[in-house]
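Q: Start with the shorter request: fold the first protein.
A: Done. Sequence, then structure:
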Amino acid sequence: MKNENNFEELSENCFIAKNDSLKILKHMKKDSIDLILTDPPYNIGKFMQKRNTNMGKLRNNHFSASGWDNLSYDDWLKNMSKFFIESSRIIKNGGSVIIFMSIIKVETIIKLAEKFGFYYKTTGIWHKKNPMPRNMNLHFVNSTEAWVYFTYKKKTGTFNNKKKLIHDFIETGLTSKLEKKSGLHPTQKPEELVSHFVELLTNKKNKVLDPFMGSGTTGKVCNDLGRTFFGIEISPKYYKIAKNRLSTS
């Protein structure tokens, strides 16, 4: 069943839509979202293809060969600007945003977000304890990804640290084989990583949005933690995977 915003209701707390996220975001209710947690295209596919990193030996669904990470810089910039425009409309004052992003694009993302009222909090690192050791005899093994943290209109938001010191450095393994089997996405994040942010930055029954949900990891975590989830995915393949995953979680 679809509601008036073209989200399909999988349960009373889980809604997903198959479309370009920018088209769906325009119809979402103003000031309705507590946390945006997402992993958008980094727009480094062509950059990676040009490097001498044995890309031809990698699996076909590696992000650099997928096609969805190959926009021109100007087109990517326009899309991310539109994303922040719509995000600023639908997120609550004091709401939080976590965006995973290539480190070479972090400064650009910060400048864009600040134009639309987002307060830059910090840039953190996810360290993968068991990264793929390709090209280990040529250069440093790629074992990190960046994430950027913003709040909207306010300098502080929900932060459930329980008086504990929380570092901007998160360390987990890669997505497990069991999780990968149910997700099958080339840039799929582990549930442990996503849970870290959902627990810190939201409370029970808060609303979490992932406009680039892929195979639905953020939704799976929200289902497990008692948050309401809204997810958008443009790929019919991954939308179907996410729908099945979230319908059975």
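Q: Next, the second protein, separately.
A: Sequence, then structure:
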Amino acid sequence: MDSSLPITIIFLSFGFVIIAHALITRKQKKRSLLIDELLLGLFHILLAIYYPLVLDKYGVNSSFYNLAINLSVLITLTALIIILTNEKIKAKKNPELITIRSNEAFKNNFLKSYDDKNQYKRRITHIIPALVVIPIYLGGKLLSFVIPNWEGLSVFLILLVGLCFIITFSLADIVRLRWNHLLPEWASKLFSKGLRKEEVEHNTFTTTSAMVLAISPWILAGLFIFMIVALITSISDAMAAIMGFRFGKHNFPSKSKKTVEGYVGGIITTFGLVLICCALMSSINLLYIVIIGSILAASFFLVDILNLPIDDNKINPQVVGITAIILIGLIGL
């Protein structure tokens, strides 16, 4: 049996379930939200397709690596199913829980307690991908003198954590939207920290797993490109929002919630992250690094200021990745 088959089946299933949900509820939402949900489902399906390619590219398709990833994912999924089954039994014994934990009750409680701090906390959680990727990469590189395929080890650990993360939040998100009463109290509180007001009002998916899924394909372009995309997408976006929240006074465009201060924070962070990535991971000379950093910062700003109807957590990784590949191709790295 193909060792990547369990992951392929799981993510194909998630993708089709999300697409089915989007189509079933299409009359209840705006067109932009429908497109966002369809894209989320498509990202799951694409991961199922390119996952075996990642294993081959980095030489992590050995029995040990595959067994470890498959077991981790299946254990995570099994644990989640057990938790949901236990909550279903509780609800059957105590029918009041169905009302208390209904989607409508969750929405009312969330909106009642919502304030600007929620948005602040949500953006902080977006830094999680960077907090996972950076230590794994640096740890792998430190071990390069004893582990020849240290990149393969790094990718293995990134896949291990990333796949379990996506499955956890994707399944929980589906349950929140379809059968909210099956979520235990601690899970609802955890979700409340990462949700936007609009996501609750319109009963749509969070961007938590969407951002990780949108970053994931770029691992096929090599760890250098992947690191640039992952760090800019998670840290720059978070810093732009945090700077806008803390110091923003000048809205631009005037009708937008985004501020000049937020844009500046995102641009500076993007430029700084490119400098760090290039210094750590390449031999590009300083002039090229400055050029690459400036253009990537400009592309990040362009996506941010356009404020497109599609979630920028899905768009930013693609724009940054394509731009980085073109720039690095032009300088012949």
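Q: Describe the second briefly.
A: Residues 63-93 form the longest helix (31 residues). The chain has a mean pLDDT of 87.
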